[in-house]
Amino acid sequence: MGELESINDSSSFHIQLLSKIIDMNQYPVIKLIxxxxxxxxxxxxxxxxxxxxxxxxxxxxxxxxLDFTSLLIxxxxxxxxxxxxxxxxxxxxxxxxxxLLMAEFSKILEDYDRKHRRR
Length: 119
What we know:
Blueprint: H1 2-21, H2 28-35, H3 40-62, H4 69-78, H5 85-95, H6 99-117
Helix pairs in contact: 3-4, 5-6
C-alpha cells in the first residue's frame, strides 16, 4: 500500500507543478476537473450526457422549439454533484465545447437572473 500512496503523492505533486507552468485559465474545463477531483469515468459520463443534450437541442431547434429551459434543467439534474452547473457551463463555453448549446444555457440563466433581480 505504501507504493500506491507514493505513486499518488508523486502524481499529485507533478500535477501541481504542471499547473504552475501552464496557464490553467486557458483550459477552464481541465481546471474544473482537477479542482473538483473528477475521475476519468465521471468526466466521460459528463461529456456523453452533454453530447446527448446537444443532439436533443439541435433536434428541438430544427423542429422550431424556442424554449430550451427543460434541457438546462436536465443538464443541472444530471451533472455530477461535484460540479456547479453555472461554473461548468461557463468553463465549457470558454473552452469552446458545444458553443450553441452553452450559449443558449447562458442566455437562459442571464434572462432568469435579470427577471429575478428586479423584484
